[in-house]
Design brief:
The complex is a heterodimer of chains A (358) and B (767). Chain A is of the alpha/beta class and 358 residues long. Chain A contains 17 helices and 11 strands. In chain A, strand 8 and strand 9 form a beta hairpin. With 767 residues, chain B is an alpha/beta fold. Chain B is elongated and about 110 Å long. Chain B has 37 helices and 10 strands. In chain B, helix 6 packs across helix 7, helix 22 runs antiparallel to helix 23 and helix 23 packs parallel to helix 25. The C terminus of chain B is likely disordered. Chain B has a 4-stranded parallel β-sheet, with helices on both faces. A 3-stranded antiparallel β-sheet of chain B has the order 4-3-7, with helices on both faces. A 3-stranded antiparallel β-sheet of chain B has the order 8-10-9, covered by helices on one side. Among the domains of chain B are: 241 residues, no CATH class; 76 residues, no CATH class; 84 residues, no CATH class; 32 residues, no CATH class. The chains are: A alpha/beta (358), B alpha/beta (767). At the A-B interface, helix 3, helix 4 and strand 11 of A face helix 15 and helix 16 of B.
């Protein structure tokens, strides 16, 4: 096993991508590694003709993935939109891995992201020594993706300042990146496209201008429909984490995952699973991703401080940490939930005690 | 000789196109269509300019109109296209299903006359009840059990049978072999699912009989259009004898048929129509524009969005079409279907937010189209009359709702209002009356939405008369005569007045009078009186002669006044509370009427009730209070009465009830009426500590009926010792000189003279 902490999707799933490529008989758009059908198969999982099993990366509606992939075949860019932790970045990474075989052309959007980070920058030492030239240019992931005909990823697009966002317009509509200093331009090679992600919960974001919005097809990734779906997601991700972290611990019982997912769903929806009791909703997002990290956290606790099996005490701290984001308001919500819902469930006594003792 | 069996799906645009092309290529000399033979005479109207689909053939029993069946047709129904083809050629065309009269009769022993009881007479939404049983039993029902088609769809790798059928048969470009393939598929299914239903066997036997009949008449080239499920049964003819045995001695009832307008809404699956389709608007679109690759549809969507003030550019349309086609390619579909287009709309036009898709569903996918039928079609006379009125008053029947604000001072609007009121009395709720925003009694607001199901109500009500007025008159009278409740009859009277049903009004007034005289139950009289008072007041606005009503009010009030004191004695709490609400309403009604002799009579009754020791405390308290309000009991007398009722000898519960009656709805009154406040306040002040503790719960109970702000302000008032806070504020910042300047204008506005003004002002100064 390699010593890399987290491998890129195209490395982690190299075998699957290779098999898909071998079995793929569909027509591929220029510079795509797979046909659109195979990309969708890679994302939602499938059994190939030779019996090879492709694991699902995105668990949920296949049609959403079809829309996403179909968008990439047109000349519009793709905007994945949704609550934090609904697998936007995850989908974006796997999409680019499957389409271009490369998920590394990434720009993290922040309030400080400048135009140079999106278009190109200058190597000032060279610029001063040699004057403006191609060599003095510092390429950005977007520029490289354009040259190589790959997918560029922009994370948290709405966090980037509006003026900087708009530099994307020329790139997306004209598929070219002018470099006026050198009186030249970089024209995108076929296969280039952009996948952006943005979340709709954050405050202080910069809404896309309508000119830019028009260049994106929006796909909203929803929170999982059913509890079974969500449990499935958490279970799969936790298992892969365990393998990566080599934790000396038993795999968590489905029972424990179900309890965490139930707590998260109930607090997120403001109603108990049986639909009978209304619950106050905390300010936290309580996404599936957070449920996953609570379980992972609990596994680590169990492995290093516990007896090697995941117990209620190991996850209690993680749950409280995920739920109580505001020390005053959320704490009241959590306490109410604990006393009115958790306490009344007979087989939840251990978790009630663990949470109360903290 | 050739017989061509064309198995189709009802309302399938692809099937319709196939049928049209197929008929044109084989040139039959007769067309047989699955449908009720009773409606054969109606077929000649197809192709008439004014018969615009969606329309339906309505078959009903003239003696029991609620037992009825609709056969809807859209332009994209294969049956419609087949009939249209035959009419334009022209070649004979016939319906060949088992006559509806026999189907009804076959069902009858099963239901045992249930069909008529299924829909209660007063059902506000008869549509939901009427066609459902009918459709399930007989109408162009989807003859294929859904489960079986789902098997085929699953085998082909589709998750939804509709989709499978669409892609296999409807969206296909080629033609001829389609019908053979359908027949073959259904044959395979039928082998697995042997039908035991007698009705279905009879129907297929009758269809075969029709085909044989056509053969006997020496037709050479016979085209048969039937639901796909029946196709194999018609292709393989069993011996004639078997069919004859099946059809022998079938009972029969008389059936009438007519064309009625239909709506896409009612054609859709959501309305409970068994053979319904999910997207009539979309089917209509692909029928009209079979070559459309999504551009025209997206343009429609875009223009709908623009109507809703959503910026939608041409580029949006292009991008959406491109995405839809990319999706279709990804799914190995020959062209983008509704699902792909919807997903593209969602992603490109709506920025992923699904809210607007509902609008598209309502306006485009289902769409609010309504059909039309020619004026000269033989129709029930009541229907004709209604259509004439609709035309004259310019109130078209629409599938989507539309609001009308009627100004009753205008003749047309008055007539419209009368028509709507009459229809409402006939239990045909075409218009829903809504509350208007102020502006007096001459305005009415209506929301109109036509439901094709009304046709059946109209036919049913046709037995009462041939015009709307006549039918409404007769219907109201019949309803009133069947009722023994005074309240119900006065309710009808209240409805009949704005509907200007003079004949019914006369009858109703007579009836009310009779019931009032004969009625021994004073409570019933009291329930009815407020309504009658309203009627008499409303009647004046509507130029109706309300004198008769007034005379009834007179006599009823007299009788109530006589019996009420007796009725208010010796009853339990519950009855007293009920009486209390009735008397409150009655009191309000009489105050509204402002009729001197009646008011006097009422005051006397109140005095009797207040004075009698036998009156239940709640009513006695209430009566005392009413007298105090009218200044008939004031000053020391009032204080005396109050103390008497609250004295220690009275049981606490009785005292509490009395106080409750006395303080009814007077939270704000206590605040502003100093005298009333003084009485209550001084009584409390005079109580000693022990007694106060005793009556505290009673007081609490009475005050608990007031609203929280009232209670809060009462508390404030008690704390400040009864001084009104309002007066103090005025005293603080009052500039008499300036106020004097403004008063003439105010008085002029109020229509008072200036002489009064000085006087008033002086009074004000002294205060």
């Amino acid at each position: 096993m390699s010593s890399i902490l987290r491998q890129h999707a195209e490395q982690l799933f190299a075998l699957e991508l290779e098999e898909l490529q071998k079995q793929d008989s569909g027509q591929r758009p220029p510079n795509w590694k797979l046909s659109p059908q195979s990309v969708v198969d890679y994302l939602v999982g499938a059994k190939l003709k030779n019996g090879f099993e492709v694991s699902p990366k995105y668990i949920g509606n296949r049609r959403l993935m079809e829309i996403a992939v179909a968008t990439l075949t047109t000349d519009r860019a793709l905007l994945l939109y949704g609550l934090p932790g609904t697998a936007k970045s995850w989908v974006s990474e796997h999409l680019s891995a499957a389409v271009s075989g490369d998920s590394t052309m990434i720009i993290q959007g922040t309030a400080g992201t400048s135009e140079e980070a999106i278009r190109y920058g200058w190597n000032y030492a060279r610029l001063l020594a040699e004057g403006p030239s191609e060599k003095a240019l510092v390429e950005t992931p977007v520029m490289r993706a354009m040259k190589e005909g790959k997918i560029a990823r922009i994370e948290e697009l709405t966090r980037i300042g509006a003026d900087v966002q708009d530099t994307l317009i020329t790139i997306l509509s004209e598929k070219t990146l002018p470099i006026p200093e050198l009186n030249t331009e970089v024209q995108a090679v076929k296969g280039f496209n952009v996948i952006a992600t943005a979340n709709n919960r954050d405050k202080g974001v910069n809404e896309l201008s309508s000119a830019l919005k028009r260049r994106f097809n929006t796909v909203i990734l929803p929170v999982p429909d059913s509890i079974e779906e969500e449990i499935d997601i958490v279970r799969r991700r936790v298992e892969s984490y365990e393998a990566a972290m080599q934790l000396p611990v038993e795999p968590p019982a489905l029972q424990e995952i179900r309890r965490i997912v139930t707590i998260f769903r109930e607090l997120r929806n403001g109603v108990t699973q049986d639909g009978k009791t209304k619950i106050k909703v905390p300010g936290a997002t309580l996404s599936t991703a957070e449920a996953i990290s609570v379980v992972n956290n609990g596994l680590a606790m169990a492995a290093y401080f516990g007896d090697g099996t995941l117990k209620a005490a190991d996850i209690a701290a993680g749950i409280i940490g995920a739920v109580v984001k505001d020390p005053v308001q959320d704490a009241i919500v959590w306490k109410e939930y604990l006393e009115t819902v958790v306490k009344t469930r007979d087989d939840w006594k251990d978790i009630y005690r663990a949470c109360r003792d903290l | 000789m050739a017989i061509h069996i064309l198995g189709i799906r009802h309302h399938g645009p692809g099937s319709a196109r196939n049928v049209k092309n197929f008929l044109a290529s084989i040139k039959p000399d007769i067309v047989l269509v699955e449908g009720p033979p009773e409606a054969d005479p109606l077929l000649k109207w197809v192709g008439h300019q004014e018969l615009k689909p969606p329309v339906a053939i309505l078959c009903y029993r003239p003696d029991a109109p609620q037992q009825s069946v609709f056969y809807p047709f859209a332009e994209f129904s294969p049956e419609w296209q087949a009939i249209l083809y035959a009419q334009t050629q022209p070649i004979p065309v016939r319906f060949m299903d088992l006559p509806i009269g026999q189907q009804f009769a076959l069902e009858a022993p099963k239901d045992d006359g249930e069909a008529s009881t299924e829909i209660p007479a007063g059902d506000p939404d008869p549509s939901s009840g009427t066609d459902k049983p009918a459709i399930e039993n007989a109408v162009a029902e989807n003859p294929v059990p859904r489960a079986t088609i789902a098997d085929l769809a699953k085998a082909a790798g589709f998750d939804n049978d509709e989709k499978w059928w669409d892609h296999m048969f409807e969206n296909r470009a080629g033609e001829a072999p389609v019908f053979d393939a359908v027949s073959e598929a259904m044959q395979a299914l039928r082998e697995d699912h042997l039908s035991t239903d007698r009705l279905e066997k009879c129907r297929e036997a009758y269809m075969r009989r029709c085909i044989r009949q056509a053969e006997r008449e020496m037709f050479q080239n016979i085209a048969v259009i039937c639901g796909a499920w029946h196709a194999p049964a018609l292709a393989n003819m069993p011996p004639r004898k078997e069919d004859d045995a099946l059809l022998k001695d079938l009972p029969k009832v008389k059936i009438d048929t007519t064309w009625i307008p239909w709506t896409f809404q009612r054609l859709s699956f959501a309305s409970g129509y068994g053979a319904g389709i999910t997207s009539p608007g979309w089917y209509d679109h692909i029928w009209r524009y079979p070559e459309d690759n999504g551009i025209r549809w997206m343009a429609k969507v875009a223009s709908l969005f623009r109507e809703q003030q959503m910026d939608t550019s041409v580029a949006h349309v292009m991008e959406a079409v491109r995405l839809a086609n990319a999706l279709a390619a990804l799914r190995h579909l020959p062209k983008a279907g509704l699902e792909e287009l919807n997903e593209a709309t969602l992603s490109v036009l709506c920025n992923g937010e699904p809210i607007l898709l509902d609008l598209i569903r309502r306006k485009l996918i289902v769409s609010d189209r309504i059909g039309d039928t020619p004026a000269d079609i033989p129709k029930p006379p009541l229907q004709m009359d209604l259509e004439k009125l609709q035309k004259r008053l310019r109130l078209p029947a629409t599938a989507d709702w539309k609001d009308y604000t009627l100004d009753l001072r205008k003749d047309t609007d008055l007539e419209r209002s009368i028509l709507l009121h009459r229809l409402r009395l006939l239990d045909i709720p075409w218009g829903q009356q809504q509350t208007t925003a102020g502006k007096g009694t001459f305005k009415e607001q209506w929301r109109l939405q036509w439901d094709p199901g009304f046709s059946i109500d109209i036919i049913e009500k046709g037995s009462y008369g041939n015009s709307v007025e006549e039918a409404a008159n007769a219907f109201v009278i019949k309803k009133a005569e069947g009722s023994a409740s005074l309240k119900e009859v006065t309710g009808l009277l209240a409805g009949a007045l704005p509907a200007e049903l003079s004949r019914a009004i006369d009858g109703l007034i007579l009836l009310v009078n009779n019931l009032a005289v004969a009625g021994t139950d004073i409570l019933q009289l009291m329930e009815a009186l407020p309504e009658l008072v309203n009627v008499s007041r409303y009647g004046n606005v509507r130029k109706t002669d309300a004198d008769q009503v007034l005379s009834i009010v007179d006599s009823m009030t007299a009788r109530i006044c006589i019996s009420l004191p007796a009725a208010a004695t010796g009853i339990d709490d519950e009855a007293a509370a009920h009486l209390h609400t009735l008397v409150t309403a009655l009191n309000e009604a009489l105050s509204l009427l402002q009729n001197e002799p009646l008011t006097l009579q009422w005051q006397q009754t109140l005095q009797i009730m207040a004075a009698s020791a036998h009156t239940v405390p709640l009513m006695a308290g209430y009566a005392t209070r009413m007298l105090a309000d009218r200044r008939l009991l004031a000053g020391p007398d009032l204080v005396k009465a109050f103390h008497y009722a609250m004295s220690a000898a009275v049981a606490p519960a009785a005292a509490a009830a009395w106080l409750e009656g006395f303080l009814t709805g007077s939270g704000s009154l206590l605040l502003v009426d100093e005298e009333l406040y003084g009485v209550v306040n001084s009584w409390i002040n005079e109580l000693d500590g022990a007694t106060f503790t005793e009556v505290l719960p009673l007081l609490r109970r009475s005050f608990s009926h007031f609203s929280p702000p009232e209670r809060r302000r009462l508390g404030e008032k008690a704390r400040t010792g009864g001084g009104s806070p309002v007066t103090t504020i005025i005293a603080a910042g009052f500039d008499t000189a300036k106020a004097r300047l403004g008063i003439p204008v105010v008085l002029q506005l109020l229509g008072l003279t200036t002489e009064v003004h000085t006087q008033t002002l002086n009074d004000g100064n002294h205060e």
